[in-house]
Amino acid sequence: MAEPEIGGSGHAGGAAAVCAALKERLGHPVTVSGPADELLVAIPRDELPHAVEVVTEFGALHVMFLGLDLRGLDPAGDLAVEEVLAVPDGPVVRLRASVAVDQPSHRSITPLLPAAQWDEREAHDLFGIVPTGHPDLRPLVLHAPIPGLPHPLLKVPPSGETTPSPFRSFAAHGEGVYELPVGPIHAGIIEPGHFRFSAVGESILHLDARLFYTHRGIEKLVEGRTFDRALPIVERSCGVCTVTHATAFSRAVERLTRTVVPPRARLARVLLAEMERLYNHVSDLGNICAGVGFHYGTSRLGWQKERLLRCNEALTGHRYLTGIVTPGGLRIDLDPARLASLAASVREIDHDVRAIVRRLVRSDGFMNRLHGTGVVSAAKARRMGAVGVGARASGLAFDLRVDRPADGYEELAIPIVTQSSGDVAARFHVRAQEAAISAGIVRDLAGRLPAGAVRVPLAAEAEPGASTLTGVEGPRGASWIWLMAGADGRVERLHLRSASFANWPVVAAAVPGNLVPDFPVINKSFELCYACTDR
Predict the structure, then answer these.
(1) 167 vs 505, residue with greater confidence
(2) Quick check: 14 and 403 in contact, CB under 8 A?
(3) To 10 degrees, what angle do helices 263-291 and 519-526 make?
(4) How confident is the model at residue 75 (pLDDT cuts 50, 70, 90)?
């Protein structure tokens, strides 16, 4: 067994323990490569579930599961699957198993990790890799087969005809049970999603959520593009998480090229990320008010969001902070005078938001609609792989800014806000407190960004076939990007698993047992994106 590179990582002890456990429990040596904080472990296909069991005994959480087509890049010339797990206070472990092209299947890990259920369905749609034993292998991404390209991320289309599995909505049966379909076209100006409720009277028994009506093939679009040309596509996978996704992609490129970002750019990225979190949280607090028809909060908080967007524009030239973060640092510097103005504006907006929240919390009619609604227990949140506010409101203290800090977050002492009730009220309170914390971080950093450059050229060319992944705590939780380099500094394979992708199954699990009129506020309390889920 190859020993992982140690070299000063705080994860070294965890890496050695994970490697030793895999060797002992699998009963044979395994090939391990990569730095101590990110282990790439090659295992036989049939041992994937066993290896997952071994790593999860360290308390590891599911990060992502993805398919790979390594033909032309790997000597074996096969397909592969990779399950990524994050060990608390330890390494990220990437379990990669080869899958024969003529027998593209593996044993499903969903029975062990329910959080991987959508990931395995997605790999089945896009690569044709069958997770045998998966409890629900209905199509996820592709609503209809693409003529001549049934699995669009394969480098070589399969020979012969393929018969896609039909999609059938789940329906509960019994006396008095009826189905209530909502969408995919909605009355409001939102993106399409189809929600089919099985209910008795007003009580919901089951919610079957179907998304991916706006699948754009972003991961296919970036293949073969240079890192610079791929960045705008990744960044625009979601309109309100631009800093999150641009930073995750940039960090992945910097990791592959061993590039060190200047101190001013590192802390400036933190400031921009907290501005993104702040305007999203303020907006989402207002949307919770909209979910129960309490329009005082909707209108007042909507105006505060608009003020924050105008602050973004004054600072960077773009209301949604697009086009700022780039591999190597930032595209533009932040003007000191505008930073001072930002700090003053955010101080005033923070004061107003706190006052509005106090009025909302004192409204018994409003808060009674939130308490006990859409409850997600800590056990369910962990099992389903909840992230962000959805996890912290259920008592799970997960936050990549603290758990795996990067850029300038390691220099900050950020408290992790949690609640224990796991209902809409808990998600409301977590958001309100996090908004205040973000406002404080912005004011602090605006007055003390270090002098110096904001961008450096990439230090080296990425080795073809080298891969890595990076996670960023965005407004909705942890979003991860997995990146493999091709020749000449181009993208060979990219996979984006957004926080919204992780949390949509949690929303569906939060709804049963509530009333049909409760769904809007439950949905708004998570406030997930369709765009970066569908991609």
Answers:
(1) 505
(2) no
(3) 170
(4) low
d(CA 356, CA 354): 5
Residue 133 zone, left/alpha/beta (φ > 0; ψ -120 to 50; rest): left
Sign of the C-alpha dihedral computed for residues 54, 60, 61 and 65 taken in this order: negative
Q: Answer for the pair 141, 215: CB distance below 8 angstroms, yes or no.
A: yes
52 within 8 A of 63, measured Cβ to Cβ: no
**Inter-residue contact 283 to 302 (CB < 8 Å):** yes
Tell me how far apart the alpha carbons of residues 216 and 212 are, in angstroms, rounded to a whole number: 9
Inter-residue contact 448 to 334 (CB < 8 Å): no
> Structure pTM?
0.92
- pLDDT tens for 473-489 read 999 999 999 999 998 88
Query: What is residue 423's DSSP assignment?
Result: S
- Evaluate whether 383 touches 115 at the Cβ level (below 8 Å): yes
Q: Tokens 């800093």 map to which residue?
A: 243
User: Is-cis flag, bond preceding 184, omega within 30?
Assistant: yes
Is residue 479 helix, strand or coil? strand
- What's the rounded Cα separation, in Å, for the pair 194 and 288? 20
Give 209's strand partners: 195
Torsion-angle region of residue 310: left (phi > 0), alpha (psi -120 to 50) or beta?
alpha
Give the containing element (helix H, strand E) for 71: none
Share of the chain above pLDDT 90, in %: 71
367-395 pLDDT, tens digit per residue, is: 999 999 999 999 999 999 999 999 999 99
